[in-house]
Fold these 2 entries.
Entry 1:
Amino acid sequence: MTDQHCSNCPMGRSCLPADLDPAELPALDTVPTRRLRLKKGETAYRVGDPALAIYAVRLGTLKSHVVTEDGRSQIVGFHLQGEILGLDSVFAPTHPSSATALEDTQLCVLPVSALQAVLPRLPTLRRHLVLALAQEAQHDRAMMTTIGLMTAEERLVAFLLQHSERLAARGFAPNEFVLRMSREEIGSYLGLKLETISRLFSRLAEAGQIEVHHRHIRLLRPDVLRRIYRRSRSVPATVRTAHHCAAGTEPATAVLESLTAL
Amino acid sequence: MTDQHCSNCPMGRSCLPADLDPAELPALDTVPTRRLRLKKGETAYRVGDPALAIYAVRLGTLKSHVVTEDGRSQIVGFHLQGEILGLDSVFAPTHPSSATALEDTQLCVLPVSALQAVLPRLPTLRRHLVLALAQEAQHDRAMMTTIGLMTAEERLVAFLLQHSERLAARGFAPNEFVLRMSREEIGSYLGLKLETISRLFSRLAEAGQIEVHHRHIRLLRPDVLRRIYRRSRSVPATVRTAHHCAAGTEPATAVLESLTAL
DNA sequence: CGGGAAGTTGAATATCATCAACGGTAGTGG
DNA sequence: CCACTACCGTTGATGATATTCAACTTCCCG
């Protein structure tokens, strides 16, 4: 829980500053970025906690999840290195979901009060956050149709491809990776049971489309997988990932601009 | 398609101005609100259309829906009188869904260009729109867990209660109403087939919890229904409806404020 | 090295989808 | 205004997909 600054952060540009105008770095450093270290299974916040900060994932992976009154639970999102956490509280006074580390994880805490003070001087940071918000909204919409419209196999394929793309955007190999989450967690995310996920992995492997060793996945026929995915998905991706959207490019959209305009 | 103004609109305060500071009405009237009349089945916009305007439902009901490449389709939202339409394009240059009238419908067109010009002088309108956006994001998140976590019966109960609440917020009877959508459309919205909806209506009626005559629904045991709903839902409602949130009340949230602040 | 969690696989089951037939309603045009 | 028709809705029988229950294996973590 040490106080540090983004410009001397060893993660360098893989995190928040990735999108920023270098000229704004000094201003970014005026935000006191408290570090939060979580061991596997620990939470950054829980449902109902007052939403006082948002978080940047410095290292590690987390899940956002909700629980019903009678104990059913669902994972509503996974958060990888460099992503923003806690934005689902933008429109609410308290966090609508809990955030739990899937492995040992380090977060940078961005207190809302500090953001409020500094965002006017950091247009590219604001842009980055708004983009992240856009992605989250789009993700929820996409998941809604993924769960509502797709078969179990299609859902798992969609999950693998999305995961692959997110890793690729961070510079990792797209066709070979180690999952940070259990079968149960994947199932919870996709509205399926862990046994179903296990069977589907076996089935896809037997069909020669993937290779599975525990949590180590290799996509052998990404083209075939992508065809399955494309047939069944509804909303073509429109919002670019933050990493693809360099500072100063086209405005998110006119509607958004008019809402956030002075 | 006549040009008119909000202050002499016969809908009066049931529509956009409901939340507004009366002092801002004259400024609101500088927005040219073109009228759009749709017959049942006609669309206000389709997937991929450039997002040039948002819409207020003056009269009638619409559905937002998406389609997959291989023809499956899902309804992602219904829009009642007084609600805002087209906000799902906030973060995208084109509409990610189509909007189709379920009955003869009248919309007020709010061109983005006009909004951009007038929003700085209409803080309560901007607030209204941002709240509408918040509700939509919350709705998508809730639907995601509704479809992922709930049984068919729970989903239908959730739908009926939500519908009831939305009608009540508009001053209609909460426990007796006429659905504007078919069984198939309800099913599409809930990730179920029309036969399943039909059977569930019959089953709930036989259990004495509702009364069904075609599309006329009466909730006989709203308390029982609400218990089913509460047990199975994950995210407690936090964002108030626009109608409940009078102008000048507490800020939406600190996070939001910091993002939209100058 | 031991114990517990995670994963796999099989068999039985449940839930919802599909296929099919039929009745009713509302909307259309004569 | 009535009759016709197309769509909507209901219900039953059958079937597919994913769940549940259960036994067993493997892998980590301590």
Entry 2:
Amino acid sequence: MNRVFCLVDCDCFYVSAERLFDPTLIGVPVVALSNSDGCVVSRCPIAKSKDPRTGELGIKMGAPFFEIKHFMKSHGLRVVSSNYALYQEVSNRVMRVLETFAPRIEVYSIDESWLDFSGVQGDLEKLGREIQAAVKKQVGIGVGVGFGPTKTLAKAANFSAKKWRAQTGGVVVLMDEIRRDKLLAWMPVDEIWGIGRQLSKRLEAMGVKKAIDLQRYDRKSLRKLFNVNVEKTSMELEGVSCYALSEGAEPKQTIASTRSFGERITELQGLREAVTTYASRACVKLRSEGQLSSCLQVFIQTSRFDEKPYSRTAICALVTPSNDTREFVAAALEGLSKIFVPGYRYAKAGIILSQFVSGEGYQPDLFAPERRRNSETLMKVMDGINARYGRGSIRIATEPPIAQWAMKRDYLSDSFVTDWHQLKRVKMT
DNA sequence: TCTGGGGTCCTAGGACCC
DNA sequence: TCTGGGGTCCTAGGACCC
């Protein structure tokens, strides 16, 4: 059967989502910032590639906010802090539309999905335009669509659809070899899905500069020099499918809650508060996944750019798998006490949970210490109260109600779709 | 002054076993 | 002087992705 993968991804997703609810953001340069308003993670086209004739600003992906802040005054740049609750809801709406087109779909990230059209007869380009139109009409978001016989080629198709937006209308079908190789002969190796900064540097040094060079390179050597994934990528560029569509989310293997602080922390007390907060959040995620964990890592670090850097991780094993916030907070605080050294300006801390077993039907070890009584009931009550009255309504006492070190979100939009009190109002006149 | 967060997978190398 | 070999498992670290 003819395999056909289709990649649909949203145009500058965070910015587009914000524009849905704030029309004043339309037609002006806009970027969305990462957590803590640290750096740029989404840019509209006017903010993106540099072109003085059209007034484009040339803001790079990942640019630190403080370096581009001056554009707000000089060029009317608008910025928004990340509002993940909003983006997740808009994402769900997009995915629901996509599901109506394909029998099998893999939600790949918050703003992209793989669709499987293997065996489908007919005009793929027309299909792509129908998908575009449907998402635009039903959700209000623009998307790019790429078709190919492998995931890597569908990605490449999607890339060229965006690169030559005006000519392609945002839809590219890359099913025949001549068209495929023409694009790959042009495409720089670092634009290939799966080839990042380090790999492309090494490849270029070997003379592998374009995607076509990687496609034609000796596969055995690729595996030897790099790893099996580079070999697979090379095969995928030739139309041999190595990465399948995976439906239904696999259970997570790790759960993390990590944040940079709004301001540096120097005292142990502040770190205890932060670590308690993150451990609590990680446990909420853990319970919502129906899992138990038996390993917690806690880390604290200064800024990467600090002249006096420090970074340590403590690993704490639990005797018995658990999802009880109290146990993880206790373990995290104990770990913290082992790695905390005074005299540093801490910028970030985090918790990572791992080594999961399914909570369903879990049989504790015969010799394991008895779990805390009523643990399950208590956690259920905690989650219930917090779901109903808001996060932190009930919490471990080391977690402060309002944290002094909380992350900066100076340009946060309202919770238009997740809070009754912040719904948009429409005035009829 | 100010530089994100949350994931996955692969590999090298050490520990350990027979 | 001479001091095995091969397999498995685990983990830290590095690479990638969005």
